[in-house]
């Protein structure tokens, strides 16, 4: 079951519509946004979409990796999306604590030696939030979303973001933690 909820200006209660398939629900969701409604919420089996929730233009995020990979990212000014992950294919970012943990474990995951953090600014407009946990299928891209977020994964109780395309990322800096 899918639903779309929105609120008329100056009203306190949301109007909620229910749909049997996602395409009709997503059409209604996008129509209400284009009409200027605030607090437009889409709910489906895998997640909840809230207009302009999550990262937006200028949000600082971090990518933990090996020193070698971090240097390659900085020299080419580009990330290479992974083919899979907790939120499907994409480029993964987290808060500084989780990114540091991933950087320190890079060699255990076969990503090279040393530990480094790449800091970015995220440029996005539509985020889907998987509040009930990750969605490894990556089907969220079909709804026109730039970013997916989950507050926890099977590997961590910290949240992570998956960005669908390198065009939404502006590189800021690199910090070598060890093995540089």
Helix content: 10-25%
Main β-sheet description: 8 strands, mixed
Q: What characteristic shape results from the CA principal axes?
A: elongated
How far is the N terminus from the C terminus? 51 Å
Q: Strand fraction band?
A: 25-35%
Q: What's the pLDDT, averaged over the residues?
A: 76
The CATH architecture of the largest domain is: Alpha-Beta Complex
Elements, N to C (H/E): EEHEEEHEHEEEEE
Class per helix and strand makeup:
alpha+beta
> Domains counted in the coordinates: how many?
2
SS field, number of helical segments: 3
Any idea of the CATH class of the largest domain?
Alpha Beta
- Oligomeric nature of the chains: single chain
Uncertain stretches of 5 or more adjacent residues: none
Strand order in space, largest sheet: 2-1-3-4-8-9-10-6
Kindly state the number of beta strands.
11
Radius of gyration: 18 Å
The CATH topology of the largest domain corresponds to: Phosphoenolpyruvate Carboxykinase, domain 3
């Amino acid at each position: 079951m899918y639903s779309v909820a929105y609120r008329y200006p100056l009203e306190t209660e949301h109007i909620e519509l229910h749909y049997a398939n996602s395409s009709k629900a997503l059409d209604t969701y996008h129509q209400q946004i284009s009409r200027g409604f605030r607090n437009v919420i889409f709910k489906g089996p895998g997640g909840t979409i809230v207009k302009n929730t999550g990262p937006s233009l200028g949000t600082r995020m971090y990518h933990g990796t090996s020193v070698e990979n971090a240097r390659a990212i900085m020299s080419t000014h580009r990330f290479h999306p992974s083919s899979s992950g907790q939120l499907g294919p994409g480029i993964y970012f987290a808060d500084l604590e989780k990114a540091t943990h991933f950087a320190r474990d890079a060699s255990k995951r076969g990503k090279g030696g040393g530990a480094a953090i790449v800091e970015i600014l995220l440029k996005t407009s539509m985020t889907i939030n998987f509040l009930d946990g990750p969605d490894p299928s990556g089907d969220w891209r079909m709804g026109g979303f730039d970013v997916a977020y989950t507050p926890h994964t099977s590997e961590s109780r910290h949240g992570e973001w998956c960005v669908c395309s390198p065009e939404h990322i502006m590189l800021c800096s690199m910090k070598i933690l060890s093995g540089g």
